[in-house]
Structure prediction request, 399 residues.
Amino acid sequence: MSRLNNKHIILAISGGIAAYKSAELVRLLIKAGAKVQVVMTSGATAFITPLTLQALSGNPVHQHLLNPKAEAGMGHIQLARWADLVLIAPASANVMARLAQGQADDLLTTLCLATNAPVLIAPAMNQAMWKDQATQDNLQTLLGRNIQVHGPASGEQACGDTGSGRMLEPSQLVSVLNAQFDQGLLAGKTVVITAGPTREALDPVRFISNHSSGKMGYALAQAAKDQGATVILISGPTHLTPPEDVTFIGVNSAQDMLLACLNVGDDADVFIATAAVADYRPAKVSEQKLKKQNADDGLTLELVQNADILATMSAHYPRAITVGFAAETQDIITHAQTKLKRKNVQMIIANDVSDTRIGFNSDDNQVSLVTANGVESLPLLSKHNLARQLILAISKLSK
Ligand code: CTP
Prediction:
């Protein structure tokens, strides 16, 4: 039986050509057993008639906030309480802007403010409108408020342009809604995540390391936990507090990190390598503190390569979905594609570390998801919001 059976779904439709797909979406939701109430903005009615949606949903369509007749039946507060989930599809640039501002000047926006149910949006608009900074800022605001954003997809648009801005197909949206009523997208799965820097000792007091803050890995651990996963976080030294209810294993060197990963590898359904692992370590660790030599003498260190933890895990545990990061300064996608193959992993999350907005210690990041099926670029997001989007994408990967 579909997980949507008997679920109360409000489908809110805003004005855009993709509104024609909403009829099919209602049909699929009803077929899956959901109870559907449709809310339309006045713009939406220019693209599809309320009568069509009434016939398909089996319920009168809600259009007006201040209509005494409508409010006497199921008014906006009753609707808000009735809903198990609110989906806005298509969500126009205008609706995103009004939601971001917290406006309550029509039924749709008022309902979103009044409901405790999860609100999901499926944006659809011209590619230039989607890319516009104002829309991207609104997107950030909405994600920060826990509004889930699904899509847009990329491709040919009704206006003749090609790019990102197409509404997800009705069948994809039904899958997204189904997943909402799971205990979580990763329920029953164990996710192992490496994070932070490693420290490669030279002597008892000195080490070689890097600037990794660990923020991305810790945010992913939280996001995986939120999706019901059992999470094991294996981290080099950071200033962060591990999320609650996560098994935390603190390590120092790349060799420690590898051992810790191998110890839990059998349990891993998903392995995500966010750690900035030192590629080399000193060939010899001095037992005593190294002393300065003669005044003019330099010091030559011999380094040996550390094992690639990600590649080792993908080779040893073929059952696990493996995901890596690639911090690059040039030819980002090409390098990421090479790493995808070389490390034999399902996804490389690539970012441009020469971009100062998204460096190692910043709170924001902009990445491209590189898989065998192609490349998907995400907008600039806070690491917290990005982690949620990445976990959604990772939960869809299969081998
Ligand atoms: N990684 C790892 N073990 C290593 C080195 C890297 O697990 N010894 C993982 C990182 O956690 C990351 C991915 O591999 O997920 C890519 O790391 P990166 O440093 O970009 O790649 P390298 O393989 O080190 O290649 P290069 O430094 O030549 O770009």
Observations:
- Residues 194, 254, 273, 275, 277, 279, 306, 308-310, 324-327, 339 surround cytidine-5'-triphosphate (CB under 6 Å).
- Residues 25 and 171 are 7 Å apart (CA to CA).
